[in-house]
Each structure stands twice: as structure tokens, then as C-alpha cells.
Specification:
Layout lengths: L5 H12 E17 L4 E16 L2 E15 L5 E2 L9 H24 L3 H14 L6 H15 L9 H11 L8 H16 L6 H13 L4 H11 L4
Antiparallel strand pairs: 1-2, 2-3, 3-4
């Protein structure tokens, strides 16, 4: 191979003489979803201090850098914003809890006495991860909610319903693709339709679900109409 000449050669020689080295210090660890690996991995949170090097020897401080997140598997560094993304395990739990909360809200808005609605809701909750969920369990939960809250679910989108749904859906919505958010709303709509057309209370509950999932009002209307059309 021919030696490197000209400007590139001088730059390469200079880089060997003068450079920058970062000394990393661990300040925390945990589990995260690694964008590089595409799965859940352990990580270390690192802060660093840069130093100017002369012939590979650190000589002058160049200030702090980081913090960064280092994957224990691929060793790649990422910005700390990657920790905002839930792990696969956490995401599954969030989705499971969201489906359960939405099903209870729709049932409480008008379907808890209907066996078809209970069956549809229980099937959705089981598919989301609560494998042992039964229709009777859901009915008992809705009755307990009604007794505890004075049946606020049956009123036009009371504050209690809004709070419950937003607590379950707000953390989840940013991590769902648009198709995933629409699928969750359609699932709720099918529960409401299992025993007949939407009641006003059910429509109001479904509108609250759509808002919590950051689906615009026009798209909520479109999806509720689509759910009524047999596939």
C-alpha cells in the first residue's frame, strides 16, 4: 500500500500526535430498550471528562461531556432520551393495563349488564395479557366502581372517567403507532356495539378514549362509524 501523502497524510500524522480522549465514569445503571440491538438490554449511564492528548498521553482537561447511555451488549452510546422509551416488558404491561381500563370504562358507560358486551370485553382483556380474566370479574369490578363513585361513569364523561383513562393512556400513546392507537379505540367500540348501537354515554366514553390516545375528533367519528360496518 502506498504511503498517505499531501494534506490527508499531514492530518493523519497530526491526529497521532494530538488528540482527545474521554474518561467515562458510571453514575447509574438499569434496563432499557436499546435502539441498536432492538431489544431490552442492561445499560450504564456515564458522564465523561475530555482531555487533550499528546502522543496518546492526557495532558490538558477539555471539559465535561455526556451524560450518555451505554448498552452493555453492543457498547454503543446513546443520548439519555432513549430512557424515555419503555422496555418491551414495561410496554406490554402498559398496553395490558390500558385495555383493561378502557374495557371497564366502556362497560360502565352502559354495557355491564349485557352478556355479549362482557364476553367481548373479557376476550379483549385476556388477549392483552390478563389470561384469567372472566366476564363475572369484569362485572364485579364495574359494580364496585359504580358503588364507589356514585355511577360517575354513566354521566356524560365525568371527571372520574377522564382521569382514569388519561392515567392509563397518556403514558402509552406516544409509544403507539397511529394504527395501534386506532386499533385500541376500535376494540373499545366493538365492546360498546356488542349489545346494540352506541348509547350517548358510550359515545362520550369512546370520545374520551380517542382524546387520550391523541386521535383527532374527526378520526374518532370515522373510526366509530367504521366499527359499525361489518367486515
Amino acid at each position: 500500500m502506498l504511503p498517505v501523502r499531501g494534506r490527508d497524510g499531514r492530518a493523519a500524522r497530526a491526529a497521532r500526535i494530538l488528540g482527545t480522549r474521554t474518561a467515562w465514569t458510571p453514575v447509574g445503571d438499569g434496563e432499557f430498550f436499546c435502539p441498536g440491538c432492538g431489544g431490552d438490554r442492561n445499560y450504564q449511564r456515564l458522564t465523561g471528562r475530555r482531555r487533550l492528548t499528546l502522543l496518546g498521553v492526557p495532558v490538558l482537561p477539555r471539559g465535561a461531556t455526556g451524560p450518555v447511555v451505554e448498552c452493555a451488549a453492543c457498547r454503543h452510546h446513546f443520548g439519555t432520551e432513549v430512557l424515555d422509551h419503555p422496555t418491551t416488558r414495561r410496554f406490554s404491561a402498559m398496553l395490558r393495563d390500558a385495555v383493561h381500563t378502557v374495557a371497564l370504562a366502556v362497560l360502565a358507560a352502559g354495557g355491564t349488564c349485557s352478556r355479549p358486551a362482557l364476553e367481548t370485553a373479557a376476550a379483549a382483556v385476556r388477549a392483552a395479557g390478563f389470561a384469567d380474566c372472566t366476564e363475572d370479574q369484569l362485572a364485579a369490578l364495574v359494580e364496585a366502581l359504580a358503588a364507589d363513585t356514585g355511577r360517575f361513569f354513566e354521566q356524560p364523561c365525568g371527571a372520574g372517567l377522564t382521569i382514569e383513562l388519561h392515567e392509563a393512556l397518556d403514558p402509552l400513546a406516544p409509544h403507539l403507532a397511529p394504527a395501534g392507537r386506532e386499533s385500541l379505540l376500535l376494540q373499545a367500540a366493538r365492546i360498546a356495539l356488542a349489545d346494540g348501537p352506541y348509547t350517548p354515554a358510550e359515545r362520550d366514553a369512546l370520545a374520551t378514549v380517542g382524546a387520550a390516545l391523541t386521535i383527532c375528533a374527526d378520526d374518532v367519528t370515522r373510526l366509530l362509524a367504521a366499527a359499525r360496518t361489518p367486515s
